[in-house]
Every structure is written in C-alpha cells, then in structure tokens.
Amino acid sequence: MTTWYEDAFRPGSEIQGKWNGKMYVVERLLGAGSNGVVALVRRGTARFALKAGHETVDHQSEINSLLAISLTETSFKNFLIDADDMTINGKEVSFYVMRYIEGITISNFIHKRGQDWIYVIGSNLLRKLTEVHKSGYVFGDLKIENMIVSNYGDVDLIDFGGVTPKGRAIKQLTEVYDRGFWNMGERVAEESYDLFSFAILLLKSLDQRKRFTGLSKMLPQNRDLDQLTAIMRENSVAAYIAPFLNKALNNEFNSSQEAYQYWRTLVSGKKITQSTLQMPWLKICFAASIFIFGATLYMYW
C-alpha cells in the first residue's frame, strides 16, 4: 500500500513551495510518524531537514511555535529556514524547512564514548530546554528519539511536534516519559513537565539492564518512583546524579534555569574519562608500532 507521502519523497524528487517558490531536492527520507514525515533535502549545495504534516491545524501550530523560538537570541536563532505549502496528489500539504544537524542518539553516543559523557550531554540538553522555556514554550515530547548528540556532547532537538505554549495541555507525549503516566503530575505545559521527561531520558539512556521494557507495561496502580530508584542504585553514574533526578522526578525545581544551575554544580567536579576518546587511537598506534617493529626485525634479521 502506497503511503500519502511515498511518491513525493522519493530520492531525487523535487519539492517546490507554492507561495515562496523555493525548490528542494529530496536526498532521502529521515523518518515518518503520526504527525508528519521528515526528509533530508538540498537546495543548491546546502542541506536541510524538511518536515511535511498532513494534519494542517497541528502542523501550522508547530510552525508557529518554531518560528517564535527561531526569532529569539538563542542557539535556535534562524533555526526555521522556510515555511510553505506543497501539492501531493492534488491536496495542499504544509511543510517547513529547518537546519539539518548530523548526529546520533544519546544511547548510541554513550555506548561508544562511555556513560560519563552523560554529564556533558545533560548540561547541554538542559541549556537547550532553558532556551525553549524562556521563549514561552515547553518542548513537551522530550525523549531519546527527539534529540541527537554530535561532536563533543553537543545536543540538538529535532522534532518540535510536541512544543506547547506554557499553561496549555500537553499536545503530544510519549507515555513512559510523561509524568502523568507515573502518577506524578498533570499533563500541563510547565517547565517541570520537561524536567521530569529529562530525568526519565537520562535514566533510560543509562538503563543497561533494560528495565524500562518491563516498566512501560506495568499497570497504572503499580507505577511509582521506586522502580526508577532501583535503576539509580544499580548504575554508578545514575547514582551520582540521583540528587538531581529525584528533584526533577518530584517536580521540586521552580524553573529549568534553577535545574540547570543545580546540575552544573553537581557535575562540576566530574571529568570525562579520556580513555573513551583515546582508545581507538591507542589501538591504531599500538598496531602500527607492532608492524614497524616487525618490519625492522625482518630488514635486519
């Protein structure tokens, strides 16, 4: 069965905005979900991420939120590149174009580099959330899949479908990251809502025993923070940041700015294990030294 977007987003397909007239060439599909489809596109030599939404009202709300955040003097400045309509099978579909950032999931990053990178990643993600909150919005659907990590723990948010003006009902969520799922608060767009999701995101990233697989299937009356505390106890990194996690899970921070400062103070003495960066090069150098030593013996034997 052909999806509504399949033909329009084939590699090499051209997408032209109806009103602004800009042309984009599709390189590949990046993802598709209930609220839209995202593709890697190029215009000239520049590459962008283009998101099209088939639910016009929700998608326009997402564009409006992203535009407001893009106008701020933060790292999100000029994040939104273009917004327009396209025609798919005779139907107008709205889309927007944003910066494209290369990266991997936080889970993959710490698997490759080591769990102590969570201190840097956590700080960068909290800074991003603080910027969103200062713009008058809550990110809403904060989860591992909606952020990427690049370079030296740099963080970017990549799906703005859940962004909600402060004070309104959260419009998009993922249950296990939702404080309502854990009976720990209402589904209202507050800074504390994102901070709760932030704590779950970190715990899920550090969950080596995959406890979350079972937790997500628990009956509502059996869900409480004791299950999350068990993960903190069995992981040394989670145990170190437990004071922060407990405050976030119990909605004890007054703002994300307060949480950000608390986090920075808590992890200020922690160092990234250099072996996680140097090990590949050490292996290469070690192998090279053996090769040179062997070649030397062969020449002078």
UniProtKB/TrEMBL annotation:
Gene3D superfamilies on file: Transferase(Phosphotransferase) domain 1
Gene Ontology molecular functions: protein serine/threonine kinase activity
Keywords: ATP-binding, Kinase, Membrane, Nucleotide-binding, Serine/threonine-protein kinase, Transferase, Transmembrane, Transmembrane helix
PROSITE patterns attached to this UniProt entry: PROTEIN_KINASE_ATP (PS00107), PROTEIN_KINASE_DOM (PS50011)
Transmembrane feature ranges: 280-300
The UniProt record lists the keyword Manganese: no
Ranges where the Protein kinase domain occurs: 24-282
Binding site for ATP: 51
Name of one Pfam family that matches: Pkinase
Protein name: Serine/threonine protein kinase
Organism in which the protein naturally occurs: Paenibacillus phytorum
Lineage start: Bacteria, Bacillati, Bacillota, Bacilli, Bacillales
